[in-house]
Amino acid sequence: MGQLVEVIAKALVDNPDEVTVTEIEGNQSIIIELKVAQEDMGKVIGKQGRIAKAIRTVVKAAATKENKRVIVEII
């Protein structure tokens, strides 16, 4: 799941080298923390959070196949 978020984020930002993804795995859920450069934050979030919502939707769809619950946090 983390790789999926990383690929999507690197495609959106101007500084792909500063994209870091951390996965914290629990019993029933996975928390994915996405960190990007400050100037790229708007590109990852989008107007009214539309891009961030789309990223979460894609990851949730991929996680459904594995019967996991995924939370994507943008830091």
Q: Would you kindly provide a written description of the structure presented here, covering whatever features stand out?
A:
The chain contains three helices and three strands. With 75 residues, it is an alpha+beta fold. The radius of gyration is 12 Å and the shape is globular. The model has no long low-confidence stretch (mean pLDDT 93).
Observed structural traits:
single chain; 75 residues; alpha+beta; three-stranded mixed beta sheet; globular
Brief characterization of the structure:
The chain is built from 3 helices and 3 strands, in the order H-E-E-H-H-E. It is of the alpha+beta class. The radius of gyration is 12 Å and the shape is globular.
Query: Which strand order spans the largest sheet, edge to edge or round the barrel?
Result: 1-2-3
Q: Uncertain spans, ≥5 residues at pLDDT below 50?
A: none
Structural class: alpha+beta
Number of separate helices: 3
